[in-house]
Write a structure and sequence with these properties.
The structure is a single chain. About 5% of the residues have low confidence. Helix content is about 35%, strand content about 25%. It is an alpha/beta fold and about 450 residues long. Its EC number is 3.6.4.12. This is RuvB-like helicase. InterPro entries: AAA+_ATPase, P-loop_NTPase, RuvB-like, RuvB-like_C, RuvBL1/2_DNA/RNA_bd_dom, TIP49_P-loop. Its main location: nucleus.
């Protein structure tokens, strides 16, 4: 019998624009490495004075309800810095990215979309102590009885189960409903299971390592016999967001009759969560926090293209940022002085009203130099599995300076395909030149439109 290992294809399939970003790339003293964690340049924006300080403030929970603005020209790494902050914080801290234009919907109010994303970015870590029975199954005998409805079939009255741990054994008499769960989990003698005392939920952990054999490869997962007593109290930690709690409480638990079912079908897919409901949930959450049963984890809400929001959204943000349950908000924009959306003639820096700008810490990102563009292209080529010859890399860096970094990175894959067509493994300078002849960048396209204006429909 031949066993062959299946090669994973996930890495090749899932390469996004910022796949190479793994963190902010800071040293222990908070200064930025010129190139680290997939990040190149932008030392000022990454250092302690900026994004590094933001991460520390978030970790120490001292920045809830504050906001940061990443301002810079297109292609200077604003989104990359926000994603790097998310990587530094880890998976336990909620990170909710959105684009300014997402708020415009025909179904839901703009302010509702903003509040929904605000609530998604606030986590709640609930600590619950549950009574459980945990051990290795030594006995499993269902007790049958006559069917009360008559007939020859028998029903299960109860099930007797024996559980063994390192400190002793216990025999339990369980409800037939729990036996049905055990059958679904395919529990048999020799398995390690735990049963929740309150809900009766059964979880099969694995097979006891006492039954482990000498084979190298086995389908079963072997686990040790649980320590301590069979009946014990266990602390279970759950991570939820406030939006999860809103949705769970907003969904109507209608009856099982036909009218309720039809009513549920007729309702629109997206329903607004009322302010009253949110206030009630906030009360419950605050009570949990005061009792020490839960801990608030303020996450990060990242709003890209913030200039796309209008004056109504900005006035709502002023209020939302000052509420007691508020996340850290990171805005990003590439606009200079421009008109605030929703007004006719109010011009403001970055298209943001001055009263909101007053509440922001502004981080500036600067354009990349030719050496930095070369390093970024080299990292992207490795991430996308392209082999680049030195002259091709230098030429792409020159193209990046003349046009944009994004355009230079876009040329990588077509140049690689041309190289393969020409029978080469690595991309040479002539492949890049051929690509430049095939595709236009934004500046070339604008120039061509100006020269041939009469040929196009105005």
């Amino acid at each position: 019998m031949k066993i062959t290992e299946v090669q994973s294809t996930t890495k090749e399939q899932r390469i996004a624009t910022h796949s190479h970003i793994k963190g902010l790339g800071l040293r222990e003293d908070g200064t930025a490495e010129p190139q680290a964690a997939g990040f190149v340049g932008q030392e000022m924006a990454r250092e302690v004075s900026a994004a590094g300080i933001v991460v520390d403030l978030i970790r120490n929970k001292k920045m809830a309800g504050r906001a940061v603005l990443l301002a810079g020209a297109p292609g200077t790494g604003k989104t990359a810095i926000a994603l790097a902050i998310a990587q530094e914080l880890g998976s336990k801290v909620p990170f909710c990215p959105m684009v300014g234009s997402e708020v415009y919907s025909s179904e839901v109010k703009k302010t509702e979309v903003l509040m929904e994303n605000f609530r998604r970015a606030i986590g709640l870590r609930i600590k619950e102590i549950k009574e459980v029975y945990e051990g290795e199954v030594t006995e499993l005998s269902p007790e049958e009885t006559e069917n009360p409805l008559g007939g020859y079939a028998k029903t299960i009255a109860h099930v007797v189960i024996g559980l063994k741990s390192t400190k002793g054994t216990k025999q339990l008499k369980l409800d037939p409903v729990i036996y049905e769960q055990m059958q679904k989990e395919k529990v048999q003698i020799g398995d390690v299971i735990y049963i929740e005392a309150n809900s009766g939920a059964v979880k099969r952990v694995g097979r006891s390592d006492a039954f482990a054999t000498e084979f190298d490869l086995e389908a079963e997962e072997y686990v040790p016999v649980p320590k301590g007593e069979v009946h014990k109290k266990k602390e279970i930690v759950q991570d939820v967001t406030l939006h999860d709690l809103d949705v769970a409480n907003a969904r109507p638990q209608g009856g099982s009759d036909i009218i309720s079912a039809l009513g549920a079908m007729a309702k629109p897919k997206k329903t607004e969560i009322t302010d009253k409901l949110r206030k009630e949930i906030n009360k419950v959450v605050n009570r949990y926090i005061e009792q020490g049963q839960a801990e608030l984890v303020p996450g990060v809400l990242f709003v890209d293209e913030v200039h796309m929001l209008d004056i109504e959204c900005f006035t709502y943000l002023n209020r939302a940022l000052e509420s007691s349950l508020s996340p850290i908000v990171i805005f990003a924009t590439n606009r200079g002085m421009c008109t605030i959306r929703g007004t006719d003639d109010v011009v403001a820096p970055h298209g943001i009203p001055l009263d909101l700008l007053d509440r922001l810490l502004i981080i500036r990102t600067i354009p990349y130099s030719q050496e930095e563009i070369e390093t970024v292209i080299n990292i992207r080529a490795k991430t996308e599995n392209h082999q680049l010859a030195r002259p091709a890399l230098e030429l792409l860096a020159e193209v990046g300076v003349k046009t944009t970094l994004r355009y230079a990175i876009q040329l990588l894959t077509p140049a690689s395909i041309l190289a393969r067509i020409n029978g080469r493994q690595s991309v040479e300078a002539e492949d890049v030149e051929e690509c430049e002849g095939l595709f236009f960048d934004a500046k070339k396209s604008a120039k061509m439109l100006q020269e041939n204006q009469s040929l196009f429909i105005a």
